[in-house]
From TrEMBL:
PROSITE patterns: GH10_1 (PS00591), GH10_2 (PS51760). Its EC number is 3.2.1.8. This is Beta-xylanase. Residues 349-678 form the GH10 domain. The active site is at residue 591. Signal peptide: none annotated. It comes from Caldicellulosiruptor saccharolyticus (strain ATCC 43494 / DSM 8903 / Tp8T 6331). PANTHER family: ENDO-1,4-BETA-XYLANASE A, GLYCOSYL HYDROLASE. GO terms for molecular function: endo-1,4-beta-xylanase activity. Belongs to the glycosyl hydrolase 10 (cellulase F) family. It comes from the Bacteria. It catalyses: Endohydrolysis of (1->4)-beta-D-xylosidic linkages in xylans. The keyword Repeat applies.
Length: 700
């Protein structure tokens, strides 16, 4: 797979979408220690004033435990277990009404010696027998209170029974405690995170037109909710739109979710982008931070949402959110704009075992990050705990460093090196030579004509000397040349501007000059789809030929942008086997992620199904077993992104994707646990048949 070809200093969209029915298979975080604030919230804390019936389900026994509680003085201990269904349950038949989406959460603590997968499951009798819906699943560490939370929108019509069971997914015997069960509507849940909201009901005081001639006004002909929206018209340029100052609502160094609903009447799909414009006190120019883009169909309201880290590396004088469209004359409506602080909804799972410690005797475990992660304290903590290598995802590519011929801005690149050095983390440089994200002017003279071969090579040499020389002794490895092979060409070389002007010679020259600039740095050729036989043979022959000439190439980077279905682990091993036959060649896995989608797939996952999560976990487990098998030549494995909502794949497929180890709430997915201890991963998709629901008369 190819990487993104756009600059992304800020972070990709955070999609929060709701399950209509069926299974929501990951822990959904809820406000820590939240209190009941309205009639839409029910709290069961076992302190003697609970309003819902709770009871022992199956053969379990339950008792009040005053020795351990997440809040208050009491919790419920569940014992006498011989089945996964031997558990604590609550009667929710009179609470979970149809037509609403509900959040159900609970704290759990168990006495097992290993992590245990727990589920929240709805069980009901619809007149045709007892059925269940597994709403969510979370792997819980031993001897520690952890929260599992799920969403569900019931579609049942007057079931005779409806209960929620809180139980281990596989474990049949371990005793555990339950405390602080919460049931709330999604509206209540979401309101806890919102720090600013504009519904445009009789008020546009904070919004302004963006661009000369642009007009904004309240309009009651179109609205997402309520009775009015904001109509934006008079646009004559792509950047024209509507804007709002946000500096008084946000804090530097924190991440926020921005959401806005959009409507237009065109017959075609129209792309909209949301961005932030900022003015720093020590800079004369404005900066424009892209948040996300989305194609929106006409005659229907659609939400555009994404996350943004407010910079903390200087004083901000102005900060404005705005929305625009590449169609310069398109008029549109916006409604229900919100700024949310998602940290009000959850706490990162800092107690997870360290990934880098697990593999400290095998290879480096790295992560590709953007500048946004370097200015977010939570991201930095996660990086330091789990990874001992970092790769700047975009910030060392030519277009990120160059401001013009012989004009460089190393501010952000320096920040990566400083962070890595300060925290004893290795850093890979990515990338010196690439056909993408290199400015067009780099290949041309001052008159706009393409340079001659000698002139371009001279410019390339100076660039490599400047960049590699600056970080000599600090960056231990460089992706010197990136994606220069195209297996559809007779000679295997991509017909890039580099090739058209210089032929394949630029590849060898780049390695020679990088070695001259830093003789101690490891130099890699890096590419994707290396599992394709034709492509890997072209790469193999190129590297072998360079080695025979004495060209200083030390390794090959296998990007490993794969998906759950393909390539197979066996195909990846064939690639590793082939390159391991080149004496002295090191292999690094440089850009690992595992998409839920194949290229061109029409499948759309609103949320990851349990089946897909478990399939992904199994393949990650098999992959790392393979990497360990070849650890004498595989010296580093780098993930292309910290967590799912940061992944470049969400921008590529324009739909939710879940390719990494951590979810958007900083919790370990089954894929993470598969790399820590595969034995804790449930192996079966379906649960066994549940026991009958007892008659419920009194609260226990």
């Amino acid at each position: 797979m190819k990487k993104r070809t756009f600059k992304s200093v800020t972070l990709l969209a955070v999609a929060i979408v709701f399950l209509v029915s069926g299974v929501f298979l990951k822990a959904f975080p809820v406000m820590q220690n939240a209190k009941a604030q309205s009639s839409s919230v029910t709290v069961i804390n076992f302190e003697g004033k609970d309003t819902l019936t709770f009871f022992a389900y199956g053969n379990a026994k339950i008792a009040t435990d005053q020795s351990s509680a997440i809040e208050g003085k009491k919790s419920i201990k569940v014992t006498n277990r011989k089945s996964i269904w031997d558990s604590l349950a609550i009667d929710v038949k009179d609470v979970l009404k149809r037509g609403k989406t509900w959040v159900i959460s609970s704290y759990i603590k168990h006495v097992g010696k290993k992590p245990i997968a727990f589920s929240i499951t709805a069980l009901y009798d619809d007149g045709k027998g007892l059925k269940y819906v597994q709403l969510g699943e979370k792997i819980v560490m031993p001897s520690k209170w952890e929260k599992i939370a799920v969403k569900w929108k019931p579609t049942l019509k007057n079931p005779s029974n409806l209960i929620i069971a809180i139980h281990p997914t596989v474990d049949k015997t371990t005793a555990y405690n339950v405390d602080s069960i919460q049931v709330m509507t999604e509206e209540t849940y979401l309101s806890q995170a919102i720090i600013y909201k504009d519904t445009f009901e009789n008020n546009t005081t904070n919004w302004r037109p963006r661009g000369e001639g642009v007009k904004i006004k309240l309009d009651n002909s179109k609205f997402h909710e309520g009775n009015e929206s904001l109509y934006v018209s008079g646009r004559t340029a792509f950047w024209h739109g509507a804007k709002i100052p946000i500096i008084k609502y946000v804090v530097p160094g924190k991440r926020y979710k921005f959401s806005i609903w959009v409507y237009h009447t065109s017959m075609d799909l129209k792309r909209f982008s949301i961005l932030v414009q900022r003015k720093m006190a020590d800079e004369a120019q404005y900066r424009y931070d892209w948040i996300t883009s989305k194609e929106v169909a006409g005659d229907g309201w659609e939400e555009i949402s994404g996350s943004y880290v407010v910079p903390d590396n200087g004083k901000i004088e102005e900060l404005e959110f705005y929305i625009e469209s590449p169609d310069p004359t398109l008029s549109f409506w916006v409604d229900d704009f919100t700024i949310s602080d998602t940290m009000k909804l959850q706490q990162p799972n800092y107690s997870l075992p360290s990934l880098k410690e697990k593999y400290k005797n095998d290879f480096k475990v790295g992560v590709a990050i953007g500048y946004g992660e370097l200015i977010n304290s939570i991201d930095k903590q996660f990086i330091k705990k789990h990874f001992n290598s970092i790769t700047p995802g975009n910030e060392m590519k030519p277009e990120s460093l160059l401001r013009g011929p012989d004009k460089y801005d190393f501010t952000i690149a320096d920040a990566f090196v400083e962070f890595a050095t300060k925290n004893n983390i290795s850093i890979r440089g990515h990338t010196l030579v690439w056909h993408n994200q290199t400015p067009d002017w780099f290949f041309k003279d001052s008159n706009g004509n393409f340079l001659k071969k000698d002139e371009l090579l001279k410019r390339l040499k100076k660039h490599i000397y400047t960049v590699v020389g600056r970080y000599k002794g600090k960056i231990y490895a460089w992706d010197v040349v990136n994606e220069a092979i195209d297996e559809t060409q007779p000679d295997g070389y991509r017909r890039s501007n580099w090739y058209k002007i210089c032929g394949p010679e630029y590849i060898e020259k780049a390695f020679i000059w990088a070695h001259e600039a830093d003789p101690q740095a490891k130099l890699f050729y890096n590419d994707y789809n290396t599992e394709v036989p034709q492509k890997r043979m072209f790469i193999y022959n190129m590297i072998k030929n360079m080695k025979s000439k004495g060209i200083p190439i030390h390794g090959v980077g296998l990007q490993c942008h794969i998906n759950v279905d393909s390539p197979s682990v066996e195909e990846i091993e064939e690639t590793i086997k082939l390159f391991s036959t080149i004496p002295g060649l090191e292999i690094q896995i440089t850009e690992l992620d595992m998409s839920f989608y194949q290229w061109g797939s029409s499948v759309y996952y609103v949320e990851p199904s349990r089946e897909m999560l478990l399939r992904q976990a199994k393949k990650y487990y098999e992959l790392f077993n393979l990497f360990r098998k070849y650890k004498k030549i595989i010296k580093s494995v780098t993930f292309w992104g910290l967590k799912d909502d940061y992944s470049w794949l969400r921008g590529v497929f324009n739909k939710p994707d879940f390719p990494l180890l951590f979810d958007e709430y900083y919790d370990g997915k089954p894929a993470f646990w598969a790399l820590i201890d595969y034995s804790v991963i449930p192996q079966n998709i379906n649960l066994p048949a549940p026991p009958a629901i007892p008659k419920l008369n009194t609260k226990k």
